[in-house]
């Protein structure tokens, strides 16, 4: 696999204090990596730091180019899409209008992208969005809004998708639908850095697991290695 993202000695803080204290990890092209940890461990902050949304220090290299100091829109144009926990849809616009806002022409897509995402692909992946394409996005259910946020991000044709707690508060049937969609996205070669509280879902999707604790990566390994280390899970994951 080709190295896509390289994070070194990443520190990030808010007014209330420091959250990340020297985070180091790599992510390869077409790889799905789950970023795990307890609430408050800094998982969401890590995604925001990559997107240039919080104060940070350290090195973030994407396709061998530095992201440090770039505005968020430039990072998105470089080929990274961010799906925030709050979904960030435009409530008064229709579903289709939201999707069209995310659509990038082929010339602006990063060079690693081999398959273009078009509006019909979004509707094929999320049929409910096609059925409700003329409905105001604010009238959608929580699960439908999550699908809309994810579909809009894909229409930017990213090489890397940063996804923050996509199944939070959703019904089991919707979670199952989202898992299937993520598996399809994975098959199309989009790399994913996934923050997910549901360990079993992450286990079904991720190729590799990062465990964040006290602002640092305390584990970087495979599904089997994580499952075999009960003491690690108890110390850093279980409540």
From TrEMBL:
Origin superkingdom: Bacteria
Example of a GO MF term: ATP binding
Pfam families associated with the record: ABC_tran (PF00005)
Segments forming domain ABC transporter: 5-239
PROSITE patterns membership: ABC_TRANSPORTER_1, ABC_TRANSPORTER_2
InterPro entries registered for this protein in UniProt: AAA+_ATPase (IPR003593), ABC_transporter-like_ATP-bd (IPR003439), ABC_transporter-like_CS (IPR017871), BCAA_Transport_ATP-bd_LivF (IPR052156), P-loop_NTPase (IPR027417)
Signal peptide stretch: none
Cell membrane listed as a keyword: yes
Keyword Nucleotide-binding appears in the UniProt entry: yes
Organism: Undibacterium seohonense
Name listed for the protein in its UniProt record: ABC transporter ATP-binding protein
Family note: Belongs to the ABC transporter superfamily.
Keywords recorded for this protein, A-Z: Amino-acid transport, ATP-binding, Cell membrane, Membrane, Nucleotide-binding, Transport
């Amino acid at each position: 696999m080709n190295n896509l993202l390289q994070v070194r000695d990443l520190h990030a803080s808010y007014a209330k204090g420091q959250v990340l204290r020297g985070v180091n990890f790599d992510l390869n092209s077409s790889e799905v990596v789950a970023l795990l940890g307890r609430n408050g461990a800094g998982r969401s902050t890590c995604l925001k730091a990559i997107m240039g949304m919080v104060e940070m220090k350290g090195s973030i290299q994407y396709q061998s180019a530095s992201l440090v100091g770039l505005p968020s829109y430039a990072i998105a144009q470089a080929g990274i899409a961010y799906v925030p926990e709050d979904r960030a849809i435009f409530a008064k616009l229709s579903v289709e209008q939201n999707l069209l806002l995310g659509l990038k022409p082929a010339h602006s897509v990063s060079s690693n992208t081999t398959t273009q995402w078009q509006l019909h692909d979004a509707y094929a992946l999320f049929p409910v969005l096609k059925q409700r394409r003329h409905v105001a996005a604010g009238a959608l259910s929580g699960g439908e809004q999550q699908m809309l946020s994810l579909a809009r991000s894909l229409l930017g044709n990213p090489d890397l998708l940063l996804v923050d707690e996509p199944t939070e508060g959703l019904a089991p049937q919707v979670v199952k639908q989202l898992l299937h969609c993520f598996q399809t996205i994975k098959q199309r070669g989009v790399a994913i850095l996934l923050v997910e509280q549901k360990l079993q879902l992450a286990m079904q999707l991720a190729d590799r697991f990062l465990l964040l604790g006290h602002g640092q990566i305390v584990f970087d390994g495979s599904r089997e290695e994580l499952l075999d280390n009960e003491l690690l899970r108890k110390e850093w994951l279980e409540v």
